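REQUEST ID: PR-0412
SUBMITTED BY: lab tech R.K.
PRIORITY: routine
TASK: structure prediction, single protein chain
INPUT:
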Amino acid sequence: MAFRSVNTGSKRAASGRAVIRKKKKGRTTMDKPVTFAICGLGIRGLEAYAAFQKQHPEEMKITAGADPDPDRRAALQANYGVPAGSCFATGEELLAQPRLADVMIIATQDRQHVAQALAALDKGYHLVLEKPISPLLDECLALQKKAHEANRVVVVCHVLRYTKFYGTLYELLRGGAIGRIESLDAVENVAYWHYAHSYVRGNWRRAEESSPMILAKSCHDMDIIRWLMGVPCESVSSYGSLDWFRAENAPDGSADRCLSGCACKEGCPYDAEKVYIFNDKSGIRSGNDEWPCSVLDVYPTPENVRRALEQGPYGRCVYACDNDVADHQCVSMAFANGVCATFTVTAFTADCRRSLRAMGSLGELEIDMLQNCIFLHPFGRPRPRQIRRTWRRRRPSDGRFCRDAPHGRHRTAHFHRRFNRQPHHGAGRGSLAAARWKKHRAFRICRAGMTPHRIPVILYFTKNIHTQK
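STATUS: complete
OUTPUT:
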């Protein structure tokens, strides 16, 4: 989305509210940090966006928060110095107070977004709004109208645009590297265990409570495809269904819970004990105290993760849940410039990553996110051109550009390849890059800093909103 500049009047500036400034050369000096209230202290609100304050306290200050989980409210108080009186059990309680910050981050469940956003705009907040805006078109239009009436900025977190990986892809396509784009094919590989976590056992398992999976998971991809095309989509068709994660597919001997004497545990890849405790990438015993384990407990340990699996929703058998969202779906799109695009999202992959292939009049282009590579195949040339970038890192105490993570699992430091356990691609054991990586291997982006492509949605406000004394 394009950020909207706001022209605020002198009366509002004098009142002490945040004022949007025109961009000037050099860095703007701020009288005091921009203040933020967070509605929803989950993985996005508490772990992804709040972390910017630890890196840059001179630019961001969290002053209030809301979440029904008392442990998460306590974590906000302990880690960010928010007074207990400014922590609330619901977003509605927070929004009933006088305006407590310049900006509100809304990171609650999908169907809560618009009601809370409208109330926040009425209070005078600018908004960082997690995706998707809403599964209902009329709510999206109502929010757009209200934002313009209130003269406030609403930034929707379609963050993949800010990865240098997709930025490079955009520049190549717009620069004519493959001539005129004729076709585009994109795939989101959700990964079997990620799908089971979020869309079978987790908060996005039922469309009536959240959103259809194609919206909850893949609105990023719809945004990227539209962005790369540069013109509107004129027609669309889509097919998908929930095929596998159903009661009739449960194997003989399975139990309702994975830790309740299931006779199929050994051969079941969806076994909760494997995923959350023993898995090399996601398990707590492998050192992963972040997502997805941090969903089960704010401060996960092997003991409390096991207890959560015994008592909570994430220990349920994937064939005995109340889920109804699709586990695979395909979309066909026709754009105004005559280009056809297809998109597939599927639960049934080993890795969690995105792939894309663009076919043009003078060549084709493919992306490999596991290798962090873009392959350019100009027609008439015997060998493809490999475009590979290792994005510049800064010291962990800064953290703004620690590692661009363009593939699907982009919200924690492990990025499904456990960057904290191995050098990045191209770094041999004796290389300088490997030595630097070994020095910083314990650094975790989500706990000690944000994932890089989420930074711009915070930076926009800290660079463009000036809080008057």
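NOTES: Residues 290 and 412 are 7 Å apart (CA to CA).
REVIEWED BY: pending
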